Amino acid sequence: MSRKCQLTGKKANNAFAVSHSHRRTKKLQEANLQWKRVWWPEGNRWVRLRLSTKAIKTLEKKGLNAMAKEAGINLNKM
């Protein structure tokens, strides 16, 4: 499984690490992903998702059904 948020699609970003002498080396800025169990009322069960912390905050505001519909995810298969 790739390191990608299942609801928002957020993934790693390529960047430069810049030293004091201003030498630049490539680095990867990973998304802050967490495994989260979310209660799905319509399915009457828990759904385990790999979410970014930003998506977890948005999930509390919008709700699981709205976010899954935006992302085009079928929660029955999770």
From TrEMBL:
HAMAP family from the xrefs?
A: Ribosomal_bL28
User: What is the official name of this protein in its record?
Assistant: Large ribosomal subunit protein bL28
- InterPro entries, alphabetized: Ribosomal_bL28, Ribosomal_bL28/bL31-like_sf, Ribosomal_bL28_bact-type, Ribosomal_bL28_sf
Q: Which GO terms describe its cellular component?
A: ribonucleoprotein complex; ribosome
SUPFAM superfamilies, from UniProt?
A: L28p-like
Taxon lineage = Bacteria, Bacillati, Cyanobacteriota, Cyanophyceae, Oscillatoriophycideae
Which keywords accompany this UniProt record?
Ribonucleoprotein, Ribosomal protein
Give the GO terms filed under biological process for this record: translation
- Gene3D superfamilies named among the record's database cross-references: Ribosomal protein L28/L24
Transmembrane residue ranges? none
